[in-house]
Amino acid sequence: MGTPKGAKTDWTFNSLPTILATILPGQLGRFYRAYNNGGGDECWEWKGPRDSDGGRFYWNYQHRQRVVSASRLAYYLITRKDLGKEKVRHTCGNNLCMNPAHLEI
């Protein structure tokens, strides 16, 4: 699955606190339901939209579709560290993994 036509894709390196402020609670709930939280050390596979770089989370804000890397959003929600232009690495090698133990910068 690629980026839907008309999606705004330039939010990847925007301030993550700014991004989070635009996501409604119901939309954030959809984010949490989009991966299997298996617990433990196994990978928690992202089941939502994806492309060659990994999972993508889409939401609507001000009548426009927005998109951000699912692993960047997950890392921010766990650590509350704004990543700037840093990329999230998956220590397991699975770019669809959402297990916080497998995410680092």
Uncertain ranges: none
User: C-alpha Rg, in Å?
Assistant: 13 Å
Number of helices: 3
The portion of residues assigned to helices is 10-25%
Based on DSSP secondary structure assignment, what is the total number of beta strands? 5
Tell me what portion of residues adopts beta-strand conformation.
15-25%
Q: Let me know the largest β-sheet.
A: 3 strands, antiparallel
Shape descriptor: globular
Terminal CA distance: 26 Å
The helix-and-strand class reads: alpha+beta
- The average pLDDT value, as a whole number, equals 83
The main sheet orders its strands as: 1-2-3
Verbal overview:
The chain has three helices and five strands, in the order H-H-E-E-E-H-E-E. It is α+β, with helices and mostly antiparallel strands and 105 residues long. The strands form two sheets. The protein has a three-stranded antiparallel β-sheet. The longest helix has 10 residues, at 70-79.
Give the helices and strands, then pairings.
Blueprint: H1 16-21, H2 25-33, E1 50-51, E2 54-61, E3 64-69, H3 70-79, E4 89-90, E5 103-104
Antiparallel strand pairs: 1-2, 2-3, 4-5
Features:
19% strand, two-stranded antiparallel sheet, 3-stranded antiparallel sheet
Can you describe this structure in just a few lines?
With 105 residues, the protein is an alpha+beta fold. The protein is built from 3 helices and 5 strands, in the order ααβββαββ.
